[in-house]
Amino acid sequence: MGMQHNQFLKISLLVISLVTLAACSSTSETEEVIEDNQGSSSSGSSASTTSAVSSGGQLTQEEIRAQNALRQTVFYFDFDVAEFKPADRDTLAYHARDLAANPGNRLRLEGHADERGTREYNLALGERRANGIMNYFIVNGASRSQIEVVSYGEERPSQSGQTEQAYTRNRRVEVVAR
Asked: Which of 100, 104, 146, 174 lies at a CB distance of 3.0 to 4.6 Å from 141, suitable for a disulfide?
């Protein structure tokens, strides 16, 4: 419950800040449209203002989706599985497109596993998980030179303990900017 509440607060703050930003940019677009249309009738001016604001709103929704996707930097895996979850495809695609659009950006994919299995097996599993995400990034436009892959296996648990919840939190790949 605490984790969900914390994530809800983060998303709420993001939405509020983006809406505020959108409101500021919409206001400046509206002022520019009104300045441009001072010589024309008021009905023409309001039509231009409406179209400027609505097209800005569509861009803002897409920007919100992209920003939310890029803020998700931890991807969880099922037990003994190296393939990322299908539900993460869209979010990972946003990361790949962001890399493709910013060739100077570099990131590290850190693969992790829970403590079950041998140390060697878990290092290999963490690497397979990170490589799976790297390959998805490349297929979706990122360059191999932008991505470093590291596996920590079971050595850096996100949550200690031998509960299913701890195991679930530890089976992950983290996307780290570098």
From this structure: 100
Q: Are 8 and 67 in the same domain?
A: yes
Strand, helix or coil at 110? strand
137: domain CATH number is 3.30.1330.60
- Identify residue 38 by its one-letter amino acid code: Q
Residue with tokens 């140390």: 119
Give the count of domains, the chain.
2
What are the residues whose beta carbons fall under 8 Å from the beta carbon of 136, sequence distance 6 or more? 84, 89, 92, 93, 96
Q: With CA atoms as reference, report the closest residue to 49 among 37, 63, 64.
A: 37
CB proximity list for 28: less than 8 A, separation 6 or greater: none
Distance from the Cα of residue 64 to its chain's centroid: 10
> What's this model's pTM, rounded to 2 decimal places?
0.67
Distance of CA 4 to the CA centre of its chain: 17
Under 8 Å between Cβ of 147 and 137: yes
pLDDT digits (tens, 9 = 90+) for 10-44: 555 444 544 444 444 433 333 333 333 334 333 33
